[in-house]
Amino acid sequence: MTQEDQKRVENAARFAADLCMRAGKDQAFYDAFWERLLSHGDILAEWIYYMENGTFLCRTAISGVTVADILVWQIDRFKAAMDQERDGLQNNGAKMALCAFDTMTKMAEDPGRYASRIAADTGTDYPGKFGGL
Hints:
Elements: H1 3-22, H2 27-39, H3 41-53, H4 67-83, H5 93-109, H6 111-120
């Protein structure tokens, strides 16, 4: 790894810590997230691109799903929680982006579990859709 690449990874670690703090996540969440991110270089590259550009690169896909797809899928969950004023999600873009990348790292380790959940989601609202949200 070049010195420039090492600096970018160090900046990405600080960026992750900052987003975790702004999202109300604890050190244990950060440690687990950062460890998974480091073990998936392609997702780390996506994270660095997001950090540097404020938008998604979307070159990496797991079972055909990009981080932007995950974010869109999760928006339903965020909106449902916001409607009920839970989890402090109001106006928390940091938490939304962080959770999308977190889910992508988890999806890299268990693609079937997440791909089936994303595919099964209808994208419509109905009572009980999110199991109690």
